[in-house]
Amino acid sequence: MHSSKNLFVQGMKQILPVASAGIIDGLVFGILARQAGLGITEAMLLSLLVNAGSSQFAAVGLISQGIVGWPILVSTALLNARHLLYGLSLGPYFRETPPWKLSLMAGSLNDETYALKITYLTAGNKPSLPYFAGASIADYVIWNASTLAGAWFGTVFTETEAFGLDFAFIATFLGFLAVNLVSSFHVKVAVSASLVACLAYWLGGGVAAVIGGTLTAVAIGAVKRDG
User: Fold this and answer.
1) Distance between CA 4 and CA 115 in Å, rounded?
2) What is the pTM of this model?
3) Terminal-to-terminal C-alpha distance of the chain
4) pLDDT in tens, 40-66
5) Domain assignments of the chain as residue spans, ordered by start
6) What local confidence, expressed as pLDDT, does residue 53 receive?
7) What is the DSSP letter of 127?
8) In the prediction, which pLDDT does 8 show?
């Protein structure tokens, strides 16, 4: 039986591959935040309080166009609507967990930590708050440290796409997807969700693609469970 300390350290170690990919994204975010006119303090507060890369990038994109206020709140809320589904999928594993502990775990939930946690659970491991805490803390520290570095050097690097830095997270999550394609049903769900996401992107952009693809996967899973 693993002790809480061992599980905490294990979580920190196992998040490192995806968190390391996040270093690139954090650097890019810090650079773009400075280019959008944010100061280092403002960029860091956005990163520390939001802790969700996609929403942070969306907010900076709108700020760079002179858009502030409600449009930012609405667009980022829609973009992160998938976090509700993340919580729903993890909830059944933590029915006996006190609400205050669930609140702390929910506050650290993002794409990277969710991918690691659901992979850990579907592999047959027992739910472990120390494991999840270790993963979340390591991811949080790495993300914000890289954001700070990017903000400091925001006036130096301007052509981030030229270095292929925008592909780092895509490659990481393709790896997570491949690991979880354990049956023909999972492959069918992935293909169906991808097709819907592509169509939604063509019709309504990135937010529509994320929501459309996620809802498709959830709907197929619900139909199979009830069928």
Assistant:
1) 21
2) 0.69
3) 37
4) 999 999 999 988 887 888 788 778 777
5) 4-179, 181-227
6) 80
7) P
8) 93
Does residue 2 sit in helix, strand or coil?
coil
**Residue whose pair of structure tokens reads 């919580």 in the numeric block:** 87
In whole angstroms, give the CA distance from residue 10 to residue 57. Answer: 30
155-162 long-range contacts, CB within 8 A, separation 24+ = 155/34, 157/27, 157/31, 158/31, 158/35, 160/28, 160/31, 160/32
Q: Which stretches of the chain drop beneath a pLDDT of 70?
A: 1-2, 79, 155-173, 175-176, 179-180, 206-207, 225-227
Instruction: Bin 222: left if φ > 0, else alpha if -120 < ψ < 50, else beta.
Output: alpha
State residue 5 phi and psi, 5-degree precision. -65, -45
- What residues have CB less than 8 Å from 116, skipping those under 6 apart? 11, 14, 15, 18, 135
